[in-house]
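Why do we care about 3D structure at all? Because function follows from shape, and shape follows, mostly, from sequence. That is the central idea of this module. The next example makes it concrete: a single protein chain, its amino acid sequence, and then its structure expressed as C-alpha cells.
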Amino acid sequence: MTEIQSKLPKVGTTIFTVMSQMAAESNAINLSQGFPDFPVSEKLIDLVYQNMQIGHNQYAPMPGLPQLREAIANKIKNTGGVNINIDTEITVSAGATEAIFSSVLATVNQGDEVIVLEPAYDCYIPAIELAGGKVVPVGLSLPNFTPDWQKVKDNITKKTRMIIINFPHNPSGAILTQDDITALKELLEENPQLIILSDEVYEHIIFDGNTHLSVLKDKFLARRSIAVSSFGKTFHATGWKIGYMVAPEAIMKEIRKVHQYNCFSVHTPSQYAMAEYLQNEKNYLGLSAMYEKKREFFQQAMQDSKFKIIPSYGTYFQVLDFSEISDMGDMEFAQYLIKDKGVASIPVSAFYSDKQDDKLLRFCFAKGEETLQKAADILCKI
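And the structure:
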C-alpha cells in the first residue's frame, strides 16, 4: 500500500468525539460536547420544510442568498449600529469551522506566523498548519482567562500575519472588555501587516448585563478583521452547519476564492428559512436571558460541591476547578467521572497545544434543568 505522509501528524480524533463516545458507552450524562438537548424552534423547522416543498433545493449563490445576507446585515446593524455591504462583505458558510478554515487558508501564507490565544478551540491550529503557517500560542491569564496583551506584543514579529481571538470564549466563558479592544487596536496600529480573525459564535450568549464587543463595532478594527458567526449556536441547530463571515471587501474577495472550492454553497432551504427567521429580533435577542438562567441554575446546584466555580460571562460553558478533589490530571479525572460517576465533561488541557493541565474541566449547561440537576447531584457527592 502506498504510504501517505500526513499533513497533520499530531491530529487525531477530536476530544469532543472521544468524550461523547465514552459517555455513550458508559451511559453517562453528557455535558461534554457543546450541543443543546432541547429542540429547535418549530417555526424555524417549518420554514425549512416549506422552502423544501416550494422547490428551493438547488445550489444557492456561492456567497449566500442575497436575502439572507441582507438579514444578516440588518442584524449587525440592529445589534451594533454598523453598516455592512451585503454584496462584498458577507459570505454564508457551512458552519463556523468552514468559515475559519477558508479565512485562514485565504490569508495565511507559507511561513507566516499566527498568534493563537490559548486555551483555544481545536480547529484553529490545523487550519494554520494546512496553510503552511507557524502557530504561536499565547496563554490567557488564569484564573479568569484574560488576555495578556503585553505577552501578545512580545510574540509579534515581522512574520506575524494574524491573531485569532475567540470571545465569548470557549472553553471559559470569558469576554472582552473595552480595555481589551483598545489594546488590540494599538497592536494593529503598530503592526500594519496584522489582521484579526475573531471567532464570535457565542455573540448572542452573554451575561450579567454585559455587551458583546465585536470587532465589527470598531471602525478601525473592522477594516482589519474577519468576524465569524454561527446560526447553529444561536438557534440550537448545531447539526445544520450554517454560519457566516464578515470582512472588508479586499479580504472577503480572497476568502471567497477558497470558499467556492471548499464547499461552494450552503444548504439552500435553510438559508431561505434563516432569512425569514431573522426578521424577528426576539429570536436571537432573548438568548442571553435564557442561557443565563441555565448558568445560574447549574452554579446554584453546584454550590455544595468541592469543585471551584470559575466565572462564566458568556457561552453555554462552565469551567470547574477540581484541584481540591483529586491529584489526577484533567484527562484522567474526566475519564474517571465518566466511567465511575456517570458525568461527561471536557478536560481543558485539550484546548492547549502543549496540553497544559490546570485541573480544570469544561461542562456544557445547554441542557434541560432535570439533566443539569442530575449531573450536579452526582458531582456534589464527590
